[in-house]
Specification:
single chain, 2 domains, 16 helices, binds the ligand CSC[C@H]1O[C@@H](n2cnc3c(O)ncnc32)[C@H](O)[C@@H]1O, binds zinc ion
Length: 445
């Protein structure tokens, strides 16, 4: 009998349950996750870890599920400062009469810094370790995410009209190209291109967005088929459904993420399939704005990658991706008229490996396996509202909400410990949030 070689590593996490996401549907018990630097050195049974690793820190999680960090694939982070400001309205009234005027009045570099930090605090506390952002002053959002150590795809905005970040498409594209260049090698930030929607971006800038994506490899994220009005208006004015127009412009590609995708028919599904574009499902925003329903199970059955996002806190009104999964799973069953649609494990895949796939990063994110990046969360199941436990995956989707998240690590760095944020000064943040709320309430800037 030969003695095992003992390897030194940084952190050992002992998990009661471990859901690695891949292989699909797996729940492991009494496993250990070993972190060395920013990567996973091993995911092995605890007895094997005893024989093989010595770590400088051990975290015992005897009532917890450990899984990969969640990936929130669509949002407008700084809109957290507009949470609850304009409710119970349909999309175009909400945008035209409330949100766009407020953005015109309040958006500044400081608004983006404070609003993005508020969003990051909420997302970290509820299990998100990677988020996608599409908003103004992306260089500020990127800096905030980088400084906190949270992974983010940051899409620079592209629209036909002026906003606080630019005078029009030419300026957005030129600042956007510089933005991509500045952040393309960062270990936390994935700079990307954010043409807002088919109804706010004309053909010329859409084509330029595609050229920039081809040149840099940056992803494109766009709101698409959000409402019946959008599809009907485009069909009437342009004689084409929005998906068909974007396909003709070359914008639907494996680097493209189509957000919302309600009101879709067989021709839309076929274009998504042919082009390899991804769908980002935002069920709560779609419900709250009464935008429509995305046929998630049909898309998955067609082989299309579907990830999940919350959208901004002004149309949701929270950034809790576990809550979003619950809504997604419930809604998918009604839409498919099939209670087996979007099972708990499939929903968890949507918030992890499918998000990683949409980012083109599934080789290093979205599941727990040796060599992948150490983006990990733990959920404490010891609360009475999560007892008894027959199937931890069921609890994560159907009974849990994000506040049961007790720990998270991103790149091997602790971000949440025993439910507390380690890298955001919440008390100081709350003072700045209250200051913004005062100004927004009185509409004085
Ligand atoms: C180009 S910056 C982002 C822009 O999008 C607005 N927005 C927020 N939520 C939605 C949504 O659900 N559909 C369309 N546009 C949305 C946001 O207020 C910014 O102006
Ligand atoms: Zn959105």
């Amino acid at each position: 009998m030969t003695a095992d070689t003992i390897t030194a590593a940084d952190i050992r996490i002992n998990a009661r349950w471990l859901i690695p996401i891949e292989p699909a549907g797996t729940v492991l018990e009494h496993y250990a996750v070993i972190i060395q630097g920013d990567r996973l050195a091993a995911v092995i049974p605890q007895e094997q870890a005893d024989r093989s690793f010595r770590t400088r820190e051990t975290v015992d999680l005897p009532n917890h599920v450990v899984m990969p960090g969640l990936i929130n694939m669509h949002g407008h982070a700084a809109m957290s400062l507009f949470r609850g400001m304009a409710d119970d309205l349909p999309l175009m009234t909400w945008l035209n009469d409330h949100i766009w005027p407020a953005e015109g009045r309040f958006i500044s570099e400081q608004f983006i810094a404070d609003g993005t930090q508020l969003a990051m605090a909420e997302m970290l506390r509820t299990g998100t370790t990677t988020f996608s952002d599409m908003y103004f002053f992306p260089e500020i959002a990127a800096q905030m995410a980088h400084d906190t150590g949270i992974r983010a795809q940051v899409c620079f905005p592209l629209l036909d009209f002026p906003t606080p970040w630019g005078a029009g498409p030419e300026e957005y594209l030129s600042k956007g190209a510089d933005f991509i260049d500045s952040w393309k090698n960062d270990c936390y930030i994935m700079p990307a291109i954010g043409p807002h929607a088919p109804y706010t971006v004309s053909d010329g800038p859409m084509i330029e967005a595609v050229r920039l994506s081809e040149k840099t490899g940056a992803a494109i994220q766009i709101h698409l088929h959000e409402t019946a009005f959008e599809v009907a208006e485009a069909t009437e004015k342009l004689g084409q459904r929005p998906t068909a127009r974007l396909a003709d412009l070359g914008l639907l590609r494996p680097e493209t993420q189509c957000v919302h995708m309600t009101q879709i028919d067989a021709s839309d599904i076929s274009l998504l399939k042919q082009t390899g574009a991804h769908v980002i499902h935002c069920p709560e925003s779609n419900l709250k704005l009464a935008s429509g329903l995305c046929p998630v199970q049909e898309l998955l059955d067609s082989g299309i990658n579907v990830a999940i996002g919350t959208d901004g806190a002004a149309s949701n009104n929270d950034l809790d991706l576990f809550g979003e999964l619950r809504t997604a799973a419930m809604m998918a069953k009604v839409v498919a008229n099939d209670a087996s649609a979007l099972s708990a494990h499939k929903a968890l895949q949507m918030a992890t490996i499918n998000g990683a796939r949409a980012l083109g990063r599934d080789h290093e994110l979205g599941s727990l396996a040796e060599g992948k990046l150490a983006d990990i969360i733990a959920i404490d199941l010891s609360d009475p509202f999560l007892q008894p436990v027959y199937d931890p995956a069921s609890h994560l989707v159907y009974s849990n909400h994000g506040r049961s998240v007790s720990h998270s690590w991103i790149n091997g760095v602790p971000q949440v410990q025993d439910g507390r944020l380690t890298r955001i000064d919440v008390a100081d943040l709350m003072l700045r949030v209250e200051d913004w709320a005062g100004r927004i309430r009185t509409k004085a800037d």
